[in-house]
Design goal:
single chain, mainly alpha, two-stranded antiparallel sheet, 4 strands, globular
């Protein structure tokens, strides 16, 4: 079965970014919105087709879904053995993430056509949205950890541009700089982890690194530093990058301020896609993490503490978007905790499955909460919940959608 077409899922948003960025000002603003939405719509349909083919048509090998490259090309050749590729890796979690990213991104595009219509820089907004979608899609289908790092940084740049969209406001400029600087510190740890990992194992490739005969399981075990093996240190540094992107304690300080961006940006970045990049990273490297129990303990403790701290802070907030931001941090903490404890007690994989399932459902209900919050802010011209009340009779549709999302986040059957 040929999956080479999957590269177009990434290339279409990239093309839209270049088109709207360079030529958007020459047309009516609405043209940029429709072009961006149409492009993401095509990527969404291609992702759905890929998921159907992968989960329902493709034959399983030994009862499990195969892990293979749908598209691959050599990007940088260093030696015969060491080279960096660019491509599309297809396995259950990357195909699932394709659905999550394209669905939420498409819905945010549709929502933004109306929500942003009075704003200056309309075409600029859709250009940045397309860049973010391209970067996030490139991250989730990366065939090797270096490709993931390249797109990881692109996600950071595009989130900086989106958070600082209202650049006339000092608060938005400060928030975008804060997000950029804090995640750069975390990403330095990620880069150090990648360099240690690739030096010890001699490869960047995910299939090799996470396979049953991975060099990560044998290399670097005898080399100790401060009582921990080289591979354990590598995984702790890699997790540091994930903790920054996913706003884990103590690198969470950028997330509440990032609410200065437009509400559709909050829904896209801080609910469904960018903040789950850290969880996705740990899940992608999970076989190595589970082989290094100390690094998994770090993941579990950081996730658990973040979840508790964020939930307590959320109870004290009045700004509706900040409440949702801290709620997001708490939910991401749960996902990290589930991954961290899933290497114990003879139930390996249960926590991993629970974490991925929660990631999938959280993306949809949290983005719905943010988009509904945007509708409320649009109606009452205030972010503060103590200035709201009795809105059910004025906003009946928003009331129903918000209620559905609240039932989902509370885990009420059948949501």
């Amino acid at each position: 079965m040929d999956f080479t077409y999957t590269i177009w899922i990434l290339l279409i948003p990239l093309f839209i970014f270049v088109l709207t960025g360079l030529a958007g000002h020459r047309f009516k603003p609405i043209v940029s919105g429709i072009a961006g939405t149409a492009g993401l719509g095509i990527s969404f349909l291609l992702s759905c087709h890929t998921a159907y083919q992968y989960f329902f048509v493709l034959e399983k090998t030994n009862g499990t879904f195969p892990q293979f490259q749908g598209f691959n090309m050599v990007w940088l050749q260093f030696t015969d053995k060491l080279h960096i590729d660019m491509g599309v890796l297809l396995d259950p979690i990357s195909v699932m993430m394709l659905i999550v990213v394209t669905t939420v991104s498409f819905m945010v595009h549709v929502y933004s056509i109306g929500y942003m219509k009075e704003e200056r820089g309309y075409h600029r907004f859709f250009s940045f949205l397309s860049l973010f979608s391209f970067s996030m899609l490139g991250l989730v289908v990366a065939t090797n950890i270096f490709q993931m790092y390249v797109f990881w940084e692109l996600v950071g740049v595009s989130s900086y541009l989106l958070i600082g969209f209202y650049y006339e406001r000092d608060t938005a400029v400060a928030a975008s700089k804060k997000a950029f600087v804090v995640t750069r510190f975390a990403d330095l740890g990620f880069l150090i982890g990648i360099l240690i990992l690739s030096y010890v194992t001699g490869t960047f490739d995910f299939i090799t690194l996470t396979g049953p005969n991975s060099p990560a399981f044998t290399s670097g075990q005898g080399i100790l530093f401060m009582g921990l093996s080289t591979m354990t240190w590598s995984m702790i540094f890699v997790f540091m990058g994930g903790a920054g992107k996913s706003a884990m304690f103590p690198l969470h300080i950028w997330l509440p301020d990032a609410m200065e961006g437009p509400t559709p940006v909050s829904a896209l970045i801080h609910a469904a896609t960018m903040v789950v990049a850290g969880v996705y990273l740990v899940a992608r490297m999970f076989p190595i993490f589970s082989h290094e129990p100390v690094s998994l303990e770090v993941v579990a403790w950081v996730g658990g503490l973040s979840s508790l701290i964020a939930a307590v802070i959320a109870c004290t907030q009045f700004d509706i978007k900040r409440v949702l931001a801290y709620s997001t941090m708490s939910q991401i903490g749960y996902m990290m905790l589930a991954l961290g404890v899933s290497g114990y007690g003879g139930h390996e994989g249960l926590g991993y499955m629970a974490s991925m399932f929660h990631l999938f459902t959280h993306a949809f209900f949290k983005s719905l909460l943010f988009l509904a919050a945007g509708a409320i802010i649009h109606a009452v011209h205030s972010n503060y919940m103590n200035e709201m009340g009795g809105l059910r009779k004025y906003l009946p549709i928003t009331h129903i959608t918000f209620l559905i999302a609240c039932l989902a986040i509370a885990g009420i059957p059948p949501f």
